[in-house]
Amino acid sequence: MITIAVDAMGGDFGPEPIVKGVLQALDTDITFLPLLVGKSKEILPLIPQNYRNRVEIIEASDVIAMEDPATDALKRKDSSVYKAVELVREGKASAVVSAGHSGATMSVATLRLGRLHGISRPALATFMPSTKGGYTLVLDVGAVTDCKPQNLYEFGAMGEAYVSQMLGIENPKVGLLSNGSEDSKGNELTKATFPLLKNLKGFVGNIEGKDIFDGKVDVVVCDGFTGNILLKTSEGVVATIFEMMKQHIHRSFWAKVGAFLMRKSVFKAMKEKVDKDEYGGAPLLGLKGCAIVSHGASTPKAIKNALFQAIHYVDSDVNSVIETLLKKQ
Q1: Which residue ranges form the domains of the chain, and what is each CATH number?
Q2: Would you say 98 and 10 are in contact if contact means Cβ atoms under 8 Å apart?
Q3: What is the residue-wise DSSP string for 233-258?
């Protein structure tokens, strides 16, 4: 049975949505043991009696607040995120899931778990929806803002391995995000990275921002500064489009009728496709272990899916594939 350490205290809304997400995951046919790390006096009342023999609570008296400096996390060893990561480091859990301070989670996970052989910096990875029905993996989306060409090369290798293992794509295509598809396009970083990425079997060259969503590639490589802006912009665009649709629908009777008819067949499918809760969180690739970084405002559904992602990650043995791929280069 896979054991998952869960930072039960770190989210924006306290332990309630996190515990609810854990209980929802336990209601499925996936078997795992959650270790809820945090203040037992706040966690225990949220767990119905019939679930209490299916979870374990690990006491942690401290919580890293969103406004706290990420560097403080390594000093605060009784915090929920620190103790959750330590469970993985000590082999008592196979993965950690946290919706708390993302900077703190990444710092503690990187320094306490360590990096895989051949990885100089870890990367946050997230899926973007594709018009062809699948998904495109983008990395990095916030772990490393100032990158070197070697970092981007490693991101490409990790993305290639992750997609092949998690999505079952045998020969994933890898693209380098640039301001044009021509080989000569880009800034100093992307131009220096281009020849390194040629060592990857699936590298297809430069891609533009629009190519992320049309299924042209399976993996998009970029520095964390660019990737984070891309992620937040995409979330804003999706929210804006849905809001504009609502406004226009309410202006016309026939638009309301059409919207009603498409509510289940079209709008529901679209919402599920772009809903960030469907992914649960972003894996921090390149660690000796598994760490899933969820959004601070994660819903129970997001936590449930983050747990499933962690379980799938461990079952797929992604880390071994990453190390093997880098050794071949």
Answers
A1: 1-119+286-329 (3.40.718.10), 126-246 (3.40.718.10)
A2: yes
A3: HHHHHHHHHHHHHHHHHTT-HHHHHH
Largest Cα–Cα distance in the chain? 63
* Residue 240 CB neighbour total at 10 angstroms: 10
Q: What angle separates helix 318-328 from helix 149-166, to the nearest 10 degrees?
A: 130
- Indicate the DSSP class of residue 79: B
> Which whole-number Å values give the CA distances from 199 to 68, 194, 298, in the listed order?
41, 9, 38
Q: Cα separations (Å) of 13 from 32, 47, 66, 96, 176? A: 25, 16, 11, 19, 37
Angle, CA of 307, 311 and 317, to the nearest 5°: 145
> Under a CB-based contact definition with an 8 Å cutoff, are residues 108 and 19 in contact?
no
Whole-number Å distance between alpha carbons of 99 and 82: 13
Give the model confidence (pLDDT) of 53-99 as tens digits: 999 999 999 998 888 888 888 899 999 999 999 999 999 999 999 99
Short-list 5, 22, 1, 3, CA closest to 298: 22
* H-helix segments, the chain: 15-26, 40-43, 80-89, 102-113, 149-166, 188-197, 224-249, 253-262, 268-274, 300-316, 318-328
* 236-267 tens-digit pLDDT: 666 666 666 666 566 666 555 555 555 555 44
Q: Which has the higher per-residue pLDDT, 131 or 296?
A: 296
Is the pTM higher than 0.70? The answer reads yes
Helix (H, G, I), strand (E, B) or coil at 210: helix
C-alpha distances in Å from residue 95, one per residue of 92, 109, 164, 306? 9, 10, 20, 11
Is 142 in contact with 228 (CB distance < 8 Å)? yes
Q: Residue 66 in contact with residue 46, Cβ under 8 Å?
A: no
Which of 272, 274, 273, 244 lies closest to 259, judged by CA? 244
Asked if 99 and 8 count as a contact pair (C-beta separation under 8 A), the reply is: no
- How buried is 327 (Cβ within 10 angstroms: 0-12 exposed, 13-18 middle, 19+ buried)? exposed
